[in-house]
Every structure is written in C-alpha cells, then in structure tokens.
C-alpha cells in the first residue's frame, strides 16, 4: 500500500506542476473565494494556515484578508520532538526565517491553538481522508488536540481519488474545498 501511495503522490504532484499559470490562477481564485465565503459566516477565531510548497494553493492573501476581518492567523512549525505541528501567529509583516524543508517560520514565535485549520491536500478521497506527503504531521497533530476544531482540506478537484486506503491513524477532513466548491463530510460514512 505504501508503494501505491508513493506512486499516487508522485502522479498528483506532477499533475499539479503541469497546470498552466492561467489554470492555476483560476483555480486559486475559486478555492479562496469559497473558503472566504465559508469563513465569513463563522465567528472570527484563530486559523492555522500553511506555507505553500510544491505547487500547493497559496492561502496567504486570504489569510491577510482574514486578519483584516478580525481573525488571528498562525503558521505551522514542525516540533522535532513530538513530530507534530505547533502553530505560531503570523501576519504579512512577521519576520520569518527558514525552518524544516526551508519552509518559513516566525523568528520570534507566539504559540497559539487554532480552532480552524487550512490543510494542503496532495490528494483526497470521497470520505475526506487526505493524501499528504507521507510524514503524518497533520494526523498526529489533530489526534493530539483535545478541543473541537474544524479541518478544511484545500486542493485541486483533479486530486480526488476513489480511496486513499486510509490506515487507522488517518484523520478525515471536515470539509474539502476545490475549485468545484465546498464539500462537507458525511459523518454517516
């Protein structure tokens, strides 16, 4: 199964990088507008975002707009001891340095516990399980959180799979957002 996931991951990442600039921009706008519309209906809180790598959709402009709407925004920082993600407050003017995998992290982090998380998807399935890069950081992080949170997976509709063959530690996203819209998980599945 690990070989299958590795092969799917490579295929989906290649598809993502082959998008034209116009296609990517159109999909980016559609996804971020859908997320903004959804979050506008929620009480402002703390939202964890991600720093885009490997062709992921970029939610930083959305994050800046959310800050203007009264939200606090946090970025993930890999905790090397627990192999989970800690979240540090971020704003467009935050001084950053390079962290693990050269992903920028705040120089002077203020740690927070988000109530919402925007989570990048390499792939996803009908039951809202995500295919990530394979390190398990998000699953371990969500398993360790002891309060209600809302997980919002962000990706491309072309990354939809019949199944990712989830294992017992995988945690399904509450919502998936692609350029085709917002998909709320059916908890009866």
Automatic annotation (TrEMBL):
Binding, ATP: 5-9, 130-138
Cofactor requirements of the protein: Mg(2+)
Keyword Metal-binding listed: yes
Class of enzymatic activity (EC top level): ligase
Gene Ontology terms describing biological process: folic acid-containing compound biosynthetic process; tetrahydrofolate interconversion
InterPro entries, per database record: FTHF_cligase (IPR002698), FTHF_cligase-like_sf (IPR024185), NagB/RpiA_transferase-like (IPR037171)
Entry's family note: Belongs to the 5-formyltetrahydrofolate cyclo-ligase family.
Protein's recorded name: 5-formyltetrahydrofolate cyclo-ligase
UniProt organism field: Methylophaga thiooxydans DMS010
Taxonomy of the source species: Bacteria, Pseudomonadati, Pseudomonadota, Gammaproteobacteria, Thiotrichales
